[in-house]
Design goal:
This protein has 201 residues and is mainly β. Helix content is 6%, strand content 71%. It has one helix at 2-13, and strands spanning 21-38, 42-48, 50-62, 65-84, 90-113, 117-137, 140-141, 151-163, 166-175, 185-198. It has an eight-stranded antiparallel beta barrel with strand order 1-3-4-5-6-8-9-10. The chain is elongated.
Length: 201
């Protein structure tokens, strides 16, 4: 996590070399899913989404092409149902992950709007530092649930619209690394996100 914060600070220090710079807070909604592959005897594994939120800050450096680093406190996770092969019993795991996300996005302004705005596309890597994980099995909380890695990676792609000082982004995050720290379990965190930023500078 410290390395990610250092990257953000270094990027902001170099801002004087660019023609335009803006910074501000942002808030958003996450619709997250933990796509799961379990190497065991289960007849069916079904992943469904879980709604969370995020808030933090973003900076935008550049003009037509731009760099957009962010730091966000984020809540995500997912719901996974396992149907046992022999008994046919279905168990439901509901997982909540609290994390700090650091996206480093590169964007391009496609269209300049007549009302002081732009239509943009962007993409880039996202480092997620998990600060806590909680889970329940069939509605019963699991104590000391720590089956997730401290750092996971994803790739974010999306589009945005700027109108005056407001910036609306729609983004999908494809999980690249295994989030699970459990044996014989592979989980990718895939997230659909809508966020609204306010450029105060």
């Amino acid at each position: 996590m410290r390395k990610g914060l250092l990257v953000i600070l270094m990027l902001l220090v170099t801002v004087g070399a660019y023609s335009q710079f803006s910074i501000g807070p942002k808030i958003g909604v996450n619709v997250a899913k933990l796509t799961t592959d379990l190497k065991s005897d289960f007849a069916d594994i079904k992943s469904s989404s879980k709604t969370g939120f995020q808030f933090g800050a973003f900076a935008r450096i550049g003009d037509k092409f731009y760099l957009q680093p962010e730091i966000l406190w984020s809540v995500k996770g997912g719901i996974v149902e396992f149907t046992q092969d022999l008994s046919g019993t279905t168990n439901k795991y509901d997982t909540k992950l609290t994390a700090v996300d650091i996206p480093i996005l590169v964007g391009y302004k496609l269209v300049k709007l007549p009302v002081a705005g732009n239509i943009r596309v962007f993409g880039g890597p996202i480092a997620t530092f998990i600060t806590s994980s909680k889970a329940s099995l069939d509605g019963v909380s699991l104590p000391e649930f720590e089956n997730y890695k401290s750092t996971i990676w994803s790739l974010g792609v999306g589009a945005g619209v700027d109108v005056l000082m407001f910036s609306l982004d729609v983004r999908y995050e494809f999980g690249l690394s295994n989030a699970s720290d459990a044996t014989d379990v592979t989980q990718k965190s895939n997230v659909f996100n809508i966020s609204l930023g306010w450029k105060i500078l």
